[in-house]
UniProtKB/TrEMBL annotation:
Its cofactor is Mn(2+); Mg(2+). NAD(+) binds at G291, S292, A293, P294, D295, I296, A297, G298, K299, D300, L301, A302, N303. It is an enzyme of class 1 (oxidoreductase). Keywords: Amino-acid biosynthesis, Branched-chain amino acid biosynthesis, Cytoplasm, Leucine biosynthesis, Magnesium, Manganese, Metal-binding, NAD, Oxidoreductase. PROSITE patterns: IDH_IMDH (PS00470). It comes from Bradyrhizobium centrolobii. This is 3-isopropylmalate dehydrogenase. It catalyses: (2R,3S)-3-isopropylmalate + NAD(+) = 4-methyl-2-oxopentanoate + CO2 + NADH. The gene is leuB. Mg(2+) binds at D228, D252, D256. It comes from the Bacteria. Its EC number is 1.1.1.85.
Amino acid sequence: MTRSDSRSIAVVGGDGIGPEVTAQGRRILALIAEKRSLPITLTDGDYGIEAYEKRGRMWPESTRIAMAEADAVLFGAIGGTSYPLPPKLHKTDSLLAVRRSLDVFVNLRPVKTSPALYEASSLKPRVLEGVDLIIVRELLGGIYFGEPRGVETLPGGERRGVNTHIYTSSQIQRVARAAFDIARTRKGRVCSVAKENVMEAGQLWREEVQAIHDARYPDVELSHMLVDHCAMQLVRAPAQFDVLLTDNLFGDILSDSAAMVTGSLGMLPSASLGVVREDGRRGALYEPVHGSAPDIAGKDLANPIGSILSVAMMLRFSLGMPKEADLVERAVSDALESGARTADIAIGRKYISTVEMGDAVASKLASLLN
Ligand SMILES: NC(=O)C1=CN([C@@H]2O[C@H](COP(=O)(O)OP(=O)(O)OC[C@H]3O[C@@H](n4cnc5c(N)ncnc54)[C@H](O)[C@@H]3O)[C@@H](O)[C@H]2O)C=CC1
Ligand SMILES: CC(C)CC(=O)C(=O)O
Ligand SMILES: [Mg+2]
């Protein structure tokens, strides 16, 4: 990005800890814009259960427009304490609907360990050494989107909940291409994870991934693993993985598990990207992997690093600023190495607040940017 390209970013904190962590991601982005004299416009928008309860609109028109027109969206989290989401809103206003509206079909979730946080992980240091993997998750298909869905009452009064797991070959092919392209920029290994031993959609997944590999990416090493086995390997020997390619549901579950190798779910960032359109733009949604964490919301306790590292991904994938992306990641490492810890990664040490962790990273970044 140069000084003449202006960019607009929609900033949507959402519910629970979403606004708390997003405020810290936002300030890191604003700091870079200021230090590099870049014309980045940040537009804040309301969204979520709290917006619905307070103002009767979960996804107000102004936020829809800001998201649709933005070069990228920085998002926090959605979710209240009461379940479920009002059913009439599920189709139109849920996070799934947001992702569909932005057409972001691939979700990237990098997982990298840092020796400074080995003690915060539930796993042994020898298991954590050298872990640097990325989960490439299909984001617009599978059981979260399949029709029919719903809860129905059968004759006789029994109730039945229905969800449908569907994948088409083109959905699998496009996410597989994304995973192989990413592997070429890394260690060149893709492990495709499905459940083809019992699911037909899993058989199709495996066949399509293998076919794309054989036709276009023979230089990338491809392996296949059943998802239950993968869940075990992620905690037995996570350093074996480079790129983990998987579907929407499995990627959701495996990424929360994988988060613990880094010490906390609060550490993980994500980028969700769409196809590059004719005008050169693409849907881009950046959000931490965690949810709204109602158990710690409003207490200034949440770890904002997932949001801050999501800003690094935005700099790399949407703003064309890979050097600044590296600097944000370095500022996070420097802050952790100098002892900054939120409660989730403190393990008996003194801990600091969400805002103070933002201060610690911002101060390291400011000196790196000078
Ligand atoms: N992308 C999103 O917006 C997501 C939304 N959700 C929603 O969030 C709500 C809560 O769901 P949960 O299952 O409790 O998952 P969660 O991810 O919100 O929290 C799980 C656990 O991790 C902790 N945690 C999460 N983020 C943290 C952070 N940044 N710093 C420190 N600790 C953190 C929480 O305190 C909690 O103990 C639900 O309404 C759920 O639907 C859940 C996952 C993703
Ligand atoms: C809407 C949910 C699938 C959100 C979630 O848990 C995730 O994307 O990790
Ligand atoms: Mg999840």
